[in-house]
Amino acid sequence: MARLLVLASTSPFRRELLARLQIPFETVAPQTDESALPGETPVATARRLAEAKARAVMQRYPDALIIGSDQVAANGNERFGKPERRENAIAQLRLMRGKEVVFHTGLCLLNAETSRAQVCCVDTHVGFRDLDDAEIESYLDKEDALNCAGSAKSEGLGISLLSYLRGDDPNALIGLPLIALCDMLRAEGLRLP
Questions:
Q1: Is 70 assigned a catalytic role?
Q2: What is the DSSP string of 160-193?
Q3: Which of 70, 132, 141, 183 is an active site residue?
Q4: Does 192 map to a domain?
Q5: The domain containing residue 139 runs over which residues?
Q6: Does any domain span residue 193?
Q7: Rounded Cα distance, 14 and 176, in Å
């Protein structure tokens, strides 16, 4: 019998990405506090929250392979979460213009049966153009990016705000590093493709 695969996320972006692998899976909402701990680096936050999300649903799925993922966008000590409101998105894009923002995407594959967790972080370096206020307003008029860390969807019109993307997996920026996930799934005995 095939192992149940569970995505511990309500993100439609992560669900769409995981569907590309053509493996049946279920989704469930993890109940986790996504706040950073005092003094915690963005990488440590992303890794910790990815694992915490997977472990949060472990009791409901004791025989499953559970995927948790979390993303933290940062420039130095400045972190950029999901803006949720237009005013916040405008403020974020103003702060990021002309700068490089690193999107740290934490990934965990938890074998609930053995409690073994494979955890990694995949970074994407994103250069934002020196945007003027009119470009920011025009972008937000045309694309709903209020549920995206950093207020821009690189898979949509948000690509026009960027000067470069650098990283090992373009899917990581959208929210789920599929290359690393495939390696983790293979380590658990799943055959891909």
A1: yes
A2: GGEEEEEES-HHHHHT--HHHHHHHHHHTT----
A3: 70
A4: no
A5: 5-187
A6: no
A7: 6
